[in-house]
Design goal:
Layout lengths: L1 H21 L1 H4 L2 H19 L20 H37 L13 E2 L3 E2 L3 H38 L3 H52 L1
Antiparallel strand pairs: 1-2
Length: about 220
Amino acid sequence: MQVRRGGVYLLGSLLTGVAAVLALPLLCVPRLARRWAAWHCDRAGRLLGVPSAARPARRAAGRRAWADPVTVRTSRALLWLPLNAVTGVALGLPVLLCVGNVVIATPLWWAFRLEGRPRLFVDVPVTGWATALTLGPLQILLLSALAYAGFPPIARAHARICLVVLSHSTAEQLAERVAVLTRTRADVLDAHGAELRRVESQHRVLARPVLLRHRLQAHRAG
């Protein structure tokens, strides 16, 4: 189960790394970059079994700790684009080669032309069923052992890199909460002010007949 999840995660990282290179101008748009980074962060968290609220927070120092949260998220999302392209391709390509050798090299060797037939153990060409059925299973066992031992830790390493790059520092989380509270307080004050103005307007409307009555009484008495 862990081998399959790790392999699927790394193949997905390979695809997203290639997509980041091909769609780099589009993904550099701040809003799209933040969404792309958030999707990667959720994906890494699911692999590691880390819920969003419990993901590790990094320490920040200096003025950056009190920077605008949106600006900080955008800068990290833009930093993740080239980093994901490099790590996704570097860590996902061996998985693709491993899976390709297991699925294609041994059972489908006959579908290739003579000069382009796959090779087993790097330099042993597959020229017939004898080679495919003797060295093929050995290579499959070797690659399966490598996948069992390597896919899960490599996938977890990539996921940790993703969370470290994209996670918020403690100061940034505090700054974001302060910003949310500030916006909420402003909204509440605006709503309260609007309600006061509405009540005052109603009082003035209700007070007009009383004022008119007093004026008429004063006028008759004079």
